[in-house]
Amino acid sequence: MLKYLKSTVCAVAGLALGATAALANPYEEFAGETLVVNFPAHPHFDAVMKVLPEFTKETGIRVEVDQLQYLKMRERQTLELTKNRGDYDLIAYVVFSKADYVYADQLENLARFFMNPKLADPNYEAEDLIDGYVANIGVAGGKKGYLPGPTGSLFGLPFGSETSILGYRKDIFDKHDLKVPETYDELLELVCLIPELEPGMGGLASRAASGHHASHAFLLHLAPLGGRIFDDEWKPIVNNEAGVEAAEALKKIVNCGAEGSKTFGFAEAGASFLQGNSAMFLDSTVFAGQVNNPDKSKVVGLVEWAPHPVGERAGSQTGGFGIGIPKNAQNKDAAFLLMQWLTSKKADKLIAMAGGNPSRYSTHADADVNEKFPHMATFGEALKNADPDWRPIIPVWGKINADLGTTLSKIIVEDAPVQESLNGVAERTQAIMDDAGYYTWTQ
Amino acid sequence: MSVAIKANRLTPYMFLAPAGIILIFALLYPIGYMIYASFLDWSPSQRIGQAEFIGFRNYVNLWGDEAFRESFWVTIRFAAIVVTLEMVLGVGLALLLDRNIKGMAMLRTVFILPMMIAPIVVGLMWRYMYHPTVGIFNRTLKNFGFEGIPWLSDSTWSFIAIVIADVWQWTPFIFILALAAMQSLPRSALEAAEIDGANEWQKIVMIKLPLMMPVLIVTLLLRLIDAFKVLEVILVLTNGGPGLSTEILALRIFRTAQEFQELGEAAAMSNLLLMMLMVLTIGMFAYSRVQEARLARQRAAVEKDAD
């Protein structure tokens, strides 16, 4: 009898141990699987590549990365997502792809994964993810169709968050006893004062090249100055007082910029700042990684960072990437585990330490991260003002964006009248929106 | 009719069949696909079967699209200017260098170098040369005490900048073809003209150019077709800006498909471009035929007079 009892106890203990072991390793079921992921060639994802071996070591899941140039990535995904069986288990996408992919029913709703107790990590701490980015990159189906709201769902997670930040030359500001601009009035005064104080140097290096770049630069100023592209009924209001003010601000910044600034794209504006030809830089945080790299920069150790100046409101850019699971993926559960791991507190810190852009507030405040990258705390503060409605995330935005960008280029280069030009954009935008059916319920 | 005779008659068609099949798949199928796509509201996120059929709406939209009309005129202006300049310079250079100079082979190789360079590299190279501060042009101008030119930041100068880059790259193409045509001219006609006392200018205008005309027309046509489709150099140099001042149709098509995600409208634009090029091609060949017929008539008249 005792013998029987002993063996029973042993068997139960063995089973319990086995169960504990299984619980302790939620990845076990997927060990040996290979995931194929599609990432862009981008500094953040270069950092991710350094961290991925850690995931394989921890989980036994192998990851094959197809890293493509950003525009090529979009092209490839467009083809991949329309196939019956896709090759990608996880994809990175830019924010305006969210509208297309969700609308075409090509991304998995993440609710069913977060509801699955075998997959969802109870210590994930989703509230630590930067709100503006979850709203901007992850959620669709709520307010305006692309923002959160009672009807919204989660289709992706922010991964490589970027916002706009003001970089300035501390040496120049100290030399002339200048105050770091906190408001738009201060900023616009400084941009033209600096070329007077430092002949040959531009005030602020900004993008202005025709098309996407000019439009991006305009949007950087539009939200803080109180403007929007549309009102709540999709009526274009880009030509209202705030819109005109934003266009005039951009024109002033470019006119007081370094030589050739009318044709600057992101790279040229960055180069102007890195070469010491401009005293300020207001654009994406992704740029910060180059400032103290002596191979690329002549301003090593001379740059400090401040939040995007405030106008009518605080509203900085929301950009960067998100990650999602394609509907036609082959290994969705394992892909979710990778997605969860990559955006977990632990991996977010590892990626930040490798030079990536963290997606969590806690990583921005982390002592080790700040010791290595002292600007990270400022970036974390700036991200609190990241405006998810910074630009409309609708399928027809590409066309509106191009029209806005070429019109702004005419304002900057050919001195086209600001109000009249923006009226033209509003008129054409209204026609595009009408054509796309946005006024079906209001007409 | 016997089987053998039937088979005999079919033989040429059988030999032609592989070429015909390749033609159908490689040429007609893609063109048919493009024509069909131009009647669809098709985004890249959809399969072609899922796209909505909208008839001629893409064409109607293009008709009312100011940006498209502007691109259309930029393309016409660009093609007319570059091809005229390239023809004049290319044929002029060929006329100048059609002689036995030492090192001529070397010189010819150097001349055709620009057209061997990848267009993206050409775009980047010129972009750096046009740079407002470090570019060679503005630095040279400033060294001589002149103001720098806003090469890429002014609408007129940007257009001039892309014209210069294109002329630099493609004049050698005209030069090499014109030179080949010139060197294959019958020497007897030129010698006869010399005996009759024609000077160099008369020989060029009355003998060389008319005899070279068939080759020059084909050359002109090839360049014209290419000038309508040029993309990479302008994409890198100006990306169509400032405003739309350098946005030629090929670039507009690229942006419509890539940025605006409207494949149907891009296909409609491509069809219009194709139709325009076909009209040009047919026009050129018709002109060439008329010219040839006129020459044949003249020749016949001369021969009749001689009899």
UniProtKB/TrEMBL annotation, chain A:
Its main location: periplasm. It is found in: Periplasm. SUPFAM superfamilies: Periplasmic binding protein-like II (SSF53850). It comes from the Bacteria. Residues 1-24 form the signal peptide. Keywords: Periplasm, Signal, Transport. GO terms for cellular component: periplasmic space. InterPro entries: Bact_solute-bd_prot1, SBP. Coiled coil: none annotated. Belongs to the bacterial solute-binding protein 1 family. PANTHER family: ABC TRANSPORTER PERIPLASMIC-BINDING PROTEIN YCJN-RELATED, ARABINOSE-BINDING PROTEIN-RELATED. This is Putative ABC transporter-binding protein. The lineage of its organism: Bacteria, Pseudomonadati, Pseudomonadota, Alphaproteobacteria, Hyphomicrobiales.
TrEMBL record, chain B:
GO terms for biological process: transmembrane transport. The chain crosses the membrane at residues 12-36, 72-97, 109-129, 157-180, 205-225, 266-287. Keywords: Cell membrane, Membrane, Transmembrane, Transmembrane helix, Transport. It is a multi-pass membrane protein. Residues 72-284 form the ABC transmembrane type-1 domain. InterPro entries: MetI-like, MetI-like_sf. It comes from the Bacteria. The keyword Membrane applies. It is found in: Cell membrane. PROSITE patterns: ABC_TM1 (PS50928). The keyword Electron transport does not apply. One of its GO terms (cellular component) is plasma membrane. Belongs to the binding-protein-dependent transport system permease family. This is sn-glycerol-3-phosphate transport system permease protein UgpA. It comes from Roseibium album.
